[in-house]
Amino acid sequence: MSIKFYTSQQSIGVASHIALEESGLKYDLVEVDFSQNQQKSGDYLKVNPKARVPSLVLDRGVLTETPAILTYIAQQAHESALALPHDPFDQAQIHSFNSYLCSTVHVAHAHKQRGERWVNDESAIKAMRENVPKTMAVCIDFIEKEMLRGPWVHGKTFSISDPYLYRISSWLEGDGVDINRYPKVKAHHSAMAERDSVKAVESYFTAG
Amino acid sequence: MSIKFYTSQQSIGVASHIALEESGLKYDLVEVDFSQNQQKSGDYLKVNPKARVPSLVLDRGVLTETPAILTYIAQQAHESALALPHDPFDQAQIHSFNSYLCSTVHVAHAHKQRGERWVNDESAIKAMRENVPKTMAVCIDFIEKEMLRGPWVHGKTFSISDPYLYRISSWLEGDGVDINRYPKVKAHHSAMAERDSVKAVESYFTAG
Q: Is the N-terminal amide bond of A151 cis, ω within 30° of 0?
């Protein structure tokens, strides 16, 4: 099986990148340089016509959307730390958490720099941007109080929810949210940063 | 196994409601009346502190988020039309499609009536609302051209993506998008409307 992984610096692709490192699967990484608008280039649109990252190119075809990519990697790497639980309810809690991240938390964050997805009006884009510290704080507060069991998202067992939350909690400082107000989220972030997978991913782009 | 299903009229809960009807599983439906703000009542917040629908209350606990609920129902009803394919890539395409609906299409729609999720400013909320026909048309055009294989979303085999798309394509008229411009989406909508599961769900609230 060959895996080609398209991603970009600082994007949500980091979550899948960490999962690939955790999985032990072999893959080739292709950087999509957003500073050069490569996500809108003809070559990349053939891979992913959504002009987004990440994309996973497999023998059978292309797979997009972070929750689907994470689940696929977990299924392929069922002897790794990412293995999905056999119990359907436990597995559903992973899908539920990841769905909340993609449909609510990532969307709240995207209103900072991607406001043109939803409006053309400059003053509306500015209003969206200014509100991001508040909406992101509401989301992280909810994760802190209602979701994050600790040390990992779903308790003692690591899962694909952990690289996903790590990527999003890395955005907090830039989003104007003080992670120190959320001790469980902060401890999760620190524990993730100690993992070899995260160190490998974090050094990938800085090492050039 | 007992299943209590919390949902509301016209909401995304319709997708899970159809799936429950397709599944053959027994369940009790509890209506959450948004016109009375019941989703914010103390009783409902104990079920789902997100103040959203749908929620599935099971022996083990509560499950929220449409993609997770649909996947769980499919796993419990593996002899029904909803059964997940065994092949991981085929299964991943279902998760990918559903993830696109929850993170992009439903979010585009939500800018019409739920703008206060992202801004306080009245003029920004108005700008968001006015843009919905355009953003929803872009999403549906993408589904028409790039995703919907026909007759069902993933081809010849029905899946949990089908009730989910049906629910969202039912919003198009109210969102200012003419479904007649998208023949595959329209044919999908019509084929869904013929199913007993959909008829049962559509008549549920109108019958009182």
A: yes
